[in-house]
Amino acid sequence: MSFISNMPKDREIMLKKIGVSSVEELFKDVPADKRFPKVEMPAPLSEPEILLELSRLSAKNASAECYDWFLGGGVYNHFVPSVIGALITRGEFLTAYTPYQPEVSQGTLEAIFEYQTMISELTGMDVVNASHYDGATALAEAAIMSVRSTRKRNKVVLAPGLHPEYRDVIETYFQGLDMELADGEIDDQTAGYIVQNPTWTGEILDVKAEAAKAHDAGAMLIVHTDPISLGVLEAPGACGADIVTAEGQSLGVGMNWGGPMLGIFATTEKNIRKMPGRIIGETVDHNGNRGCVLTFAAREQHIRREKATSNICSNQGLAALSAAIYLAALGKSGFRKVAELSWHKAHYAASEIGKLDGFSLKTKGHFFKEFLVETPVAAERIFAQLKDKFILPGLPVSRLGGADNELLVCVTEVNSKEQIDRLVAALKEVK
Amino acid sequence: MSNLWKISGEGRSAVYLPGLDVPETPIPAELRREEEPNLPEVAEMDLVRHYTNLSRRNFSIDTHFYPLGSCTMKYNPKVNEVTAALPGFRNAHPYQGDELSQGAIELLYRMQEQLSAISGFDATSLQPAAGAQGELTGILMIRKYHEERGELEKRRKILVPDSAHGTNPATATMAGFQSKEIPSDKHGNIDLAALKAECDETLAGIMITNPNTLGLFEENILEVIDAVHRAGGMVYGDGANFNAVMGIVKPGELGFDVMHYNVHKTFTGPHGGGGPGAGPVSAGAALKDYLPGPIAYKKADGYELKQPPKTIGRMKLFYGNFGILVRGFTYISMLGAAGLRDVTENAVLNANYLKALVAEKFPAAYDRSCMHEFVTRGDIAPGIHTLDIAKRLIDYGFHPPTIYFPLIVPEAIMIEPTETESRETIEAFAEAMNKIADEAVNAPDLLHNAPASTAVKRLDEAGAVKKPVLRY
Amino acid sequence: MKFDKDARYSETHEWVRKEGDLLVFGISDYAQSKIGEVVFVELPEEDEFEKGASFSVVESVKSANDLYIPVSGEVVEVNEALEDDPDLVNSDAFGDGWICKIKPSDMSDFDGLLSAADYEKMVSELD
User: Fold this and answer.
1) Phi and psi angles of residue B243, each rounded to the nearest 5 degrees, phi first
2) Of the residues B23, B178, B444, C14, which has the fewest C-beta atoms closer than 10 A?
C-alpha cells in the first residue's frame, strides 16, 4: 500500500503517456550493476501491528506520569496544557512547509510573529528568530555570532556554571572554525562571554555585574537562561545582554526523551544582520492590508551561500508554535504563577531535604527551581533505590562527569507537597 | 485581523494550575523583574478560535497539493502522530538512564539498522536535528578523517556542484573549508573535466546531491566518485532527494562515504511549518567511527547508548529529534523494503507523468527522463516571470512549486509531485499549468495581479527590510 | 543605462572617480539595475584595505552582493545618507548613491581600471 493512490490501471495510463513500457525504464541512468539491489529488512507491519509494537516499546520506558518526578538538568517536567496538542496537530499547521509563499502561509507566519513578540517580552530583547534545534545549538551559534560581530577577536569565554553537554556542543561547532573556547577570565581577545543563569546546578548569578565585566573588555555578553525563570527573575535584556539563548522545551513542548526541543535566540536590533536563522516581519500588501513575511533573508544560506551567518534551514517551527500557544494560554498571571509555584515548591523541598542527616544543600546563594544536594551515599545508589519506589529523585551529576555524591534535584509546579514529602521520606531511608 | 493582545482581558487565562500547597518562601526583591512580560490574557475558547482561524490561512499537505521541488511534501500518515505521542516516548527524559529507556534505545537501534540497510552503509547516527545539521555532521567527519591522517592542513577544499542543494556552501564554511563550485555540463551532469581539474592534493571532499536539484540522476556518478577518491578526497551525499532512489540503488554501494537523510521529507515526519526535522547520518567503513553520538548499540541483555570510538562529538543535545524519529520508524516499519521501493517507483512515475503532461507549454530544462522531480521555466511569454506563474497557481488551489531554484536554470520552476498524489490530482495540476500558459498570452494581468483569491495579496518584502517590524 | 564618463570601473561593476587626492566609490548603474531595489548598504569601516578585498555589501530582498575595493587604500568617509535611504543607490548610482571615499595608497591603481567606454563595451557583451 505505501499510502499510494495509483493502481496498476492508473500506472498503465501514465506509462503510455510518458512513452515507456515499464517503470524500470525510468531508472536507466542508474549504473546497471548497482540497480535494484537486495534490501534486507524485516517484513512490513500493518497499522494494528505497528501500534502494538510501539506501545510495547513505549511501555519499556519510564514516563513522567508514573513517577514522582524530580529529574531535570536541562530538560524539565513542566505541565503541558492539553490545548497545545489539539492545536499543533491541526494538519494546516502540522503539514505546512516553511512559509516561503506568504499569501498561503499567513497562519504560520502570524503565529511565529506572535512567538517572536512573546519571547521578546520574556527576554527583554528587541529581535527574536524563528528558532534553533535546541538550546545548545542556539548557544553555539550565539558564540559564533559574537566572534563574527567583533572585529579581530576570536575567543569565547565561558563563565563557570555552563551545562557540560552544552560545552560539548559548542566544541563540536568550533572544530572547523578559527575560534577559541576558554574558561575563566575575559581579555582583550574575547569576543563573547557566556553566562548561564541560573547555572546548570541552579545558582542565580548577578547578570548585571557579568554584563559590566564583558562590556568593559569590549566583549558581547551572551546569556543562556531558563525561560520559566523569567516569570519572576529579571529579564537578561534589562541586565545588558547582547544575545540571549534559552532552551524552550519547558514552554509546552514536552520532554520527548530530549527531542524535539526548542532553541530560543534573541538579540538587539543593531545585531540583526549578524543573527542566524529565519526572521518574520510585518509588512503590507498592495491594498495596504497587513501581512507577515520571512524577512532579512539575504543573511541566510540559500542567498548568501558560503558567506551566510549559518547553514541553518529547517528549524523547530512546530515547537516554537507550541511555545507561543503555551505562553498565550497561561497569560500574564498564569506564567508568573508557574514560576512562583516552582520557586516555592523547590525551596520547600530544599529546606526539608536539608534537614535530613547526611544531606546538605550545595548550591550557593539563591536558586530558582533546581538545587544541588550533597548526599551521604553515591547519588546513583539513591537513584537506583528510589526508582523502585517510583520516585526519580533527581540527576546524579556523576552521569555528566560530576562528583559521585551529588544529586541535582528539580521541582516544578507539577510536584505536589505529597510527592515532595514522599521524596524526603524515601531519601531518609536510603542505605 | 484580530490578534492575541486585542482579544485579551485582564486576569484571563486558559490554564488551570494547581494551588500553592507548601509554605511560601519570599522571592527577594532584588531578583524580581522590574517589568512584567506583556503576555496576552485569553480564555481557552478564544485561544482555540484564534489559532484555528490562523491555521486556516495556511496551505498544507492535508488541504492542498503542495509540489515543492526538493522538499518531498508527501502525505504524513496519522498513525505517526499516535505513536509519537505514546507516553513512554512523549514523557520520557533523556537523563533517566539506559535501564529506564530500553524501549527508546531499542527503537533507535532498529532505525539505525533500517537506514543502514536501505542505503548500504555500515553505521548510522540519528542525532543530527535536520538536513543542514546532517550536512555539517558529514563534513566535520571528513574533516576529522583528514586531521587524523595528518592531511588537514593541505586539504582545504570542498567541491560543490552548481546543481547541489543551497545549504551546501554555507555548510562547508561552517566546517572551516573553502567551497569551490563545479559547473554542470549540457546534460545536467557534473562537468567531468572541470571536476577532474580540481581533484588534487588540496581536495578534502565533494558534496553530491544525487539525483541533483535538476531532478536528474548523475549519469557519471561512478566516475565522479572514483576521481575524488583517487585524489584522496571523501564523498558526501546530500540525501534530501532520497525519495528518488530507495530500493533502486544503495549510495553506499556507489562509493559514497557518508550521507544524511531528511526524515521529515522521505520518511514522513511532518514539516511543521519549518521544522522540527531529523537529519540522521550514515557512513561507510572509512568514516563510521567518527559519527556523532551517543548512538544505540546492542549488548547481551538489551541496548545501550555510547559514543562511537572516534566521534566528532555531540552535534546537539541528547539523541536527536526523537519525536520525529518515532514517526520515521513507524513509517519505515510499515512499508518494509518492498514498500519503500514502491514509494520511489511511484514518485518517479508521477514526476515523469506530470513532466509529460506539461511538456508542450513548460518543457523541462533538460530533455531526459527525470527522477522524483523536474525543472522547467516560467518566462513563457513576454513580461511573464516565474513568480507570476507561481502566484497564479494559488488561485487554482495549488501550492506553488519551488521557484528560482536551482540557480543554474533562469526563472526556474522545480516540481516534485511525490508518490502519494493520485493520477487525477496530477492531471488537475497539469491542466491548471496549461491554462495559465494560455492566460500568460491572452490575459497576462491575471498573472501579474495573482493571487486574487487570498486574504492578503503580494506583500511588500522590500518594505519589510527597510522599516523592520519584528514584533507587536 | 547610464555610464559616468569621468569615472573608471572594475570588472565587478564598482566605479571610482577622482576628487582631489581622494577617490569616490560606488556601484554602476548597470549593477544597481541587476540587483533591484536596494534595501540596505553595509557601509565599509573607516580603515585600510588591500585592493580586491571585500569591504561592503549591497543588499536587496533576494540578494546580498559583496563589493570589492578596486584600489588599495584607506576608507576616509562613508555616505551616511544611505543608512536611511539605501535606494539612493538605485535612483542616483553615480551621484547621491556614492558609498565611500578612499584615500588610495597608490594612484596608479586607478589608472589600471577600465575606462567608461571599455566598461560600456564589457557590459554590452554581458546581456
Assistant:
1) -60, -15
2) B23
Listed by number, the residues of chain C in 4-33 with a beta carbon closer than 8 Å to a beta carbon of chain B are none
Q: In this complex, is the C-beta atom of C85 within 8 Å of any C-beta atom belonging to chain B?
A: no
Cell numbers for A143, please give them: 558564540
CB pairs under 8 A between A and C: 20
d(CA A346, CA A413): 9
Whether omega before A393 lies within 30 degrees of 0, making that bond cis, reads: no
In angstroms, rounded to a whole number, what is the distance separating the alpha carbons of residues C24 and A64?
67
Indicate the SS3 state at residue C54: strand
Could you give the CA distance from residue B307 to residue A270 in angstroms, rounded to a whole number?
40
Q: Which residues contact A418 (CB under 8 A, 6 or more apart)?
A: none
Cell triple for A103: 499569501
d(CA B5, CA B271): 28
Q: Domain ranges for chain A, please list them.
A: 64-78+332-429, 84-324
- Residues whose CB falls within 8 Å of the CB of residue B220, separated by 6 or more in sequence, listed in order: B189, B190, B192
Question: In the 3-class helix/strand/coil scheme, how is B235-284 assigned residue by residue?
Answer: EEEEECCHHHCCCCCCHHHHCCCEEEECCCCCCCCCCCCCCCCCCCEEEC
pTM of the model: 0.96
Q: Does B91 touch chain A (CB under 8 A)?
A: yes
Query: Which of B8, B136, B222, B456 would you mutate first to test chain A, the one with the most A CBs within 10 A?
Result: B456
Chain B residues inside the 8 Å CB shell of C40 = 465-466
pLDDT, tens digit, 9 for 90 and up, residues C8-60: 999 999 999 999 999 999 999 999 999 999 999 999 988 889 999 988 999 98
Is B337 in contact with A41 (Cβ distance < 8 A)? yes
CATH number assigned to the domain covering A64-78+332-429: 3.90.1150.10
- Name chain A contacts of C75, Cβ cutoff 8 Å: none
Find the DSSP H helices in B359-460.
386-395, 423-442, 444-448
Residue C121 belongs to some domain of the structure: no
What CATH architecture does domain B80-335 belong to? 3-Layer(aba) Sandwich (3.40)
Q: In what order do the strands lie in the sheet with C64-68?
A: C38-42, C54-60, C64-68
Q: Are the C-beta atoms of B104 and B116 separated by less than 8 Å?
A: no
Could you tell me which residues are beta bridge partners of residue B459?
A: A285
The CATH number for C43's domain is: 2.40.50.100
Helices (H) and strands (E) in chain A, counts: 12, 15
Q: Count the neighbouring beta carbons within 10 Å of the beta carbon of residue B66.
A: 26
C-alpha cell at A180: 577559541
For A250, residues 6+ apart whose C-beta sits below 8 A from its C-beta are A76, A78, A226, A227, A228
Q: Is the dihedral of CA A97, A103, A108, A112 positive or negative?
A: positive
Using the beta-carbon criterion (under 8 Å), do A297 and C62 form an inter-chain contact? yes
Across the beta sheet with C100-104, what order do the strands follow?
C8-9, C14-19, C22-27, C100-104, C73-78, C48-49
CA distance A246 to A139: 8
- C126 contacts in B (CB within 8 Å)? none
Per-domain residue ranges of chain B? 1-43, 80-335
Per-residue pLDDT of chain A (431 residues; tens, 9 = 90+): 689 999 999 999 999 999 999 999 999 999 999 999 999 999 999 999 999 999 999 999 999 999 999 999 999 999 999 999 999 999 999 999 999 999 999 999 999 999 999 999 999 999 999 999 999 999 999 999 999 998 789 999 999 999 999 999 999 999 999 999 999 899 999 999 999 999 999 999 999 999 999 999 999 999 999 999 999 999 999 999 999 999 999 999 999 999 999 999 999 999 999 999 999 999 999 999 999 999 998 888 888 888 888 888 889 999 999 999 999 999 999 999 999 999 999 999 999 999 999 999 999 899 999 999 999 999 999 999 999 999 999 999 999 999 999 999 999 999 999 999 999 999 999 98
Instruction: State ipTM.
Output: 0.97
